[in-house]
Amino acid sequence: MSTPVYTIKPALRCLHKTQNYRRCLRTFTATYSSQEAALQATSPTPSLDPALVGKKGQEQQLINQGVQPIGSRRRRAALRTSTNIPFEQLPYQCFQEARKILLTDREEKLEHIEEERKRIAKLEDRDPAKCGGDVVKRAKLTAMRKYLEELKIKADINDPVIKKRFEDGDGDMNRPIYRYLADRKWREYKRLVMMQRITQMNIVPDVLPHLDPTTAVDLAFGRRNVQPGEFVDSRVSEIPPRLSIQVFDKGERLVTILVLDSDVPNVEKDRFDYRCHFLATNIPLSPTITSLPFRHLSPETQIVLPWLPPHAQKGSPYHRLSIFVLQQPEGKTMDVEAMRTKEQRHGFNIRSFNDRHQVKPIGVHLFRNTWDEGTAGVMTRAGLEGADVELKRKKVEPLPYKKKDAARYR
Known about the structure:
Blueprint (H helix, E strand, L loop, with lengths): L4 H20 L9 H9 L13 H9 L8 H9 L11 H33 L8 H23 L3 H8 L8 H13 L1 H11 L2 H4 L9 E6 L2 E3 L3 E2 L10 E5 L6 E14 L4 E15 L5 E3 L9 E3 L13 E9 L8 H7 L7 H8 L2 E10 L5 H7 L29
Parallel strand pairs: 3-10
Antiparallel strand pairs: 1-2, 1-4, 4-7, 5-6, 5-9, 6-8, 9-10
Helix pairs in contact: 5-6
């Protein structure tokens, strides 16, 4: 008996479709196909321009690579959508007319600068006896040089090219205008935060009676930047830190770096003492020399007391560790060998140190340390005792007239 044709044709069609579908299927592989490999070889990964990135993901990729985006996101978007025209040649009539006015004002300021320089040179050549003596002559020269620096700043303060370079991070700190702009930016936010921290945590007056920082100080342990007053893990602070110190006045000077713990428990006297964790002197500093890694300092000519890892015993309150930048007198170099014999870690008094060496605090930073899971290991590796000791608060007995009579409650 033969099979009907109307039952065979549908089965053949289903079989044909199944075979075609299996041909279209692709098995999972760990390699690229030839077309995908050729496409990937011909299209390399585009590099990101820090001056033009506009998306948050692209900004994060640059930050992960260690590159910071330049300027604001709105500015980068404007540069990305505009033609490649120099900033000072932008084809806007109002902008160009304003630049003409600013250039005219700058020419007048430059003439005043030349006149003031001639006056200073003339006064330098005069006999001190004819101008009131050496003290009066030095005072006049100091005032005139200060006025000359102000004229230099006023000549460039309204220049849009100067402001653009400063915002892009291309400013030359040897020029007074860029130091002025950097100082103003620091005082608008970072200095206010620092003053709040040292006041809130009683660094003033516990450590120093008065403090007026004029230098920006940033702290970092490895790749971790530390904000003022932040808690730092003892394993992170075990390595010597790196300071970034920015001064805003011209010239090179010598400074002393001091790291002080002001919350060291003294069980015998029932009080807190000071402990010096680091002391280095004769460190050159200028507006262009800003990075200061502790491990790069000379142990023979600069380091008085090497880095001691911050540590807090179990049960003690958190420790405040202050970093002070002390400016040395002009032309004075400290005797490192004499300081090593006299300065001690425990019981260090910064007030008497400042009076004895005539140094002036110009910068400060602050971080905190407390007992954590890594403190015992840090103390063991540093050869410090007390890792197995726990401090407990002593119970204060009430005064006799404040004690409650137990018979009343029976």
